[in-house]
Amino acid sequence: MRWVVANWDQVVSLALNHVLLSVLPILLSLVLSIPLGWWAHRRRTARRVLLSGSGILYALPSLPLFVILPVLIGTQILDPLNVVVALTLYGVALMVRSCTEAFDAVDAGVRDSATAIGHSPGQRFRVVDLPLAGPPMLAGLRVVSASTLSLVSVGALIGVPSLGYFFTDGYTRSFLTEIIVGIVGTVVLALLFDALLVLAGRLLMPWVRATDTRREDR
Amino acid sequence: MRFLLSALAWILDPAHWAGPTGIGARLGEHLLYSLLALVLATVIALPLGLWIGHTGRGRAIAIGTSGALRALPSLGLLTFLAVALGVGINGALLPSTIVLAVLAAPPILAGAYAGVEGIDRDVVDGARATGFSERQIVTAVEMPLAAPMVLGGIRSATLQVIATATIAAYLGLGGLGRFILDGLPVRDYSQMLAGAVLVTVLALAIDGLLLLLQRSLVTAGVRAATGVET
Question: Which residues cross the membrane (chain B) (predicted)?
Answer without folding.
Answer: 30-52, 72-92, 98-116, 159-181, 193-213
